[in-house]
Amino acid sequence: MSARALLTCLLGALLLSGCVSYRLGITFNWLGGGTVEQILAVDRNLVEAGGEQLDTLVAGLERRTAELGGTSERTVERLRLRIPFEDGADLESKLNRFLGRPLETAARPTAQAVPAVLSGTAPLPAVLAKDPPALSTPGPLRLVQRDRWLWSEYDVSADLDLRSPFGTVRVGNWVSGLIQLEFALTTPLPAFRSNSDEQQGQTLLWRIRTGEINHLEASFIVPNLLLIGLITLAALALAAFAWQRRKLFSAR
């Protein structure tokens, strides 16, 4: 079955049965590292329609996740991928490598063998992705990190072009009801600027819309806990030394 035939089959399953849900979440910890988590949930009828081709796509995702030091959990209708990152630069590199290059299969490593699960400019599930860009195409995520004395400032932005996920096939309004795409960003402290659709404490949530370009941006800070801890310890040590001297002089 060709990639185009597969897309047609999966599209028919979408019309008959249910929806595809994809959530990309990035969580920063207090040390500036964190985890990228991707959850792809597909209706059972859609899974059956995909057959071996869909299994190949999922296996490619799992392999790519492992190459980036991540782990995967798979059930019949759900795939969860986790990729750790050490800092902002590591996040940008790993996520853009994951999103920006086509799946590689041992059986048929040609560019036309399978569609990209997530193209460089359109983070869609495999069943709705267009042909991947060249490897030299920059990824969709951009991250600028500015290291201050007691904290680091982060500016995160992305442009996701979902105007035509099927390549030459124009997507109608009915797709929005069958596809649920979300991007979530969780930070140690609440973001001080974003264009997210919703903010719940430290988590920003964007609902990605098909048929248009989605621009995402957010700014937040991560405290330098190591330096803050050293300063605190030094201050406590000085306070203890001053108290001991004062006690010694009082005794005289």
TrEMBL record:
TM regions (residue ranges): 220-243
Domain of life: Bacteria
Keyword terms, alphabetized: Membrane, Transmembrane, Transmembrane helix
Pfam families listed in its UniProt record: DUF3153
Protein name: Glr2777 protein
Record organism: Gloeobacter violaceus (strain ATCC 29082 / PCC 7421)
InterPro entries reported in the protein's UniProt record: DUF3153
